[in-house]
């Protein structure tokens, strides 16, 4: 069936078909260039832009949540309601829609997602005078995590522990396939903020405390997400979002110019340079200026210095926050003008905000507070994104194929990712790996048999899988049982677990924290709970081998449990995490994860990161004094760096001879650090300059070649105000891998 609508101002008929918009008049492409798929994107954008009214242009800048059109058209969710669709899509002419965390169709299946997105798209096109499609966004941050039955990958902090950009890219490709199959074309991922403070509730959404490692993993994920050309990635949250002054989400940050430029910005720039189509703005303020109001950040830096051409979108309701929270203005129109003039191209809007945003922007354009030129600039970027994604030709997906494309897809990749993320931190006496022929093994702890805990927040709903909702996956207990059968005994009760361990060959206790997200998940004391510390102590008192597995969204201060003899950090390993953990514990896989962050000893050690600068300080833990340092991680074999050599000018070339000196095959993560022992500006004692993963057979040695631009060693020159340009300081650098180093002279 096709719906024909007369396009009064175009002078030709346009058909809306199952596949998209079609020209129905001979030679129409010459008359209606924006509908000609063979025309250049720039000419199509220009042609469409000149046909649009101010109201149609303003609507393009609005991105309401789908709940604005469901149920009570506020927050209830439910079935789509035509009257609300008419208001949002027809009257307000919005250009985009999103599903935030938990904003799903009535039945949360891939097919129902596709049907819902198709219905919204069809209504938008059919009620648009110029038949302009919407672009639909979703937070698919560890796989298509909103959808029941979709495979959930490890959260980003676990991906950081893999040190594997190729894996990150593959996960991006997989996520894009699942997202596209269900209708959306815009993924609000990856998070390019760097880890800083474990009190912050979004810590697990970052890749690493190191800007280069985070940048490489995020850039790879962007490439994977956008490889098909059907899904756009988002670099978020630009910039400095992860360094709240008091450790609480969306609070002020104080980041001096040198720290901002040398430490925070590189991870975002790497993802922008990888071709990300969109950027999302930091919800907080930096040095007294809300990021959404910063012309320097969003225009001078992002556009003019970095050359970004894509769409800048606000985070949730952050445009109006300039009025309600930051009090930069006392009107909604004033808030819209500040944000749009700073460089925001689209506002993300919850219920109750859509009319205010649209009416405010219309008022701004009418009064000249937002120029028509700036409006056209934003609309052009949004339209360019839609043409790039092929939405004018193919606005719909085949809902009948969605379930097959999403349900249980790429489980092997999820197992691989979770396995590579497993980070072995202690293995006293080489108790691990356990024998698959083991006798009785007690499995206990609050996360031993919990899919919600191992998935974490942003899974099905914003704060994680709700109570009573079953999402498929392999728990850690199930994974262990799959390896050793009935020898694995799940014992949830702590007293019973201690008693049964006395007659067991070993106990595996899975501890950690519960799912959560954003401010709700902030923790002033990010530590393992007292009852879990006590459980570890009581189990160890039995004298039997006790393997502590931590399933958590951040490195928790372990307290008494820090004396565990065997300690495995599993992060938030996703739906297939149980298989990965079991494979590592029983030697089917050799652990290769390395900490992408520093693990603090006490809750007072915040923020903590390995690049903190030295000073004249003294006293316990006043310097870099982690429980486990950045890059820490053990294996079931042993490795050695046997030599390092360095050469090159603008590109530094590093050769590292490595060897597997043990008896098991494994992957060796090789970080290469740069040190400047003497320099005119303080630089971190170590800076990650390059890294690689090397698969090595038992007894094998090889030489790996790495390279990096010398500019990676640049720092911001000048005095305290950081007024100088970034440059590589002259001096004698040391390039370090393992316990070997080579000198690099920079004149």
Automatic annotation (TrEMBL):
EC number: 3.2.1.21
Domain Fibronectin type III-like positions: 668-741
Keyword Nucleotide-binding: no
Superkingdom assignment: Bacteria
InterPro entries associated with the record: Cellulose_Degrad_GH3, Fn3-like, GH, Glyco_hydro_3_C, Glyco_hydro_3_C_sf, Glyco_hydro_3_N, Glyco_hydro_3_N_sf, Ig-like_fold
Gene Ontology molecular function: hydrolase activity
Secretion signal, residue range per the UniProt entry: 1-30
Keywords assigned by UniProt, alphabetized: Glycosidase, Hydrolase, Signal
Catalytic activity: Hydrolysis of terminal, non-reducing beta-D-glucosyl residues with release of beta-D-glucose
Family: Belongs to the glycosyl hydrolase 3 family.
UniProt name for this protein: beta-glucosidase
Lineage: Bacteria, Bacillati, Actinomycetota, Actinomycetes, Streptosporangiales
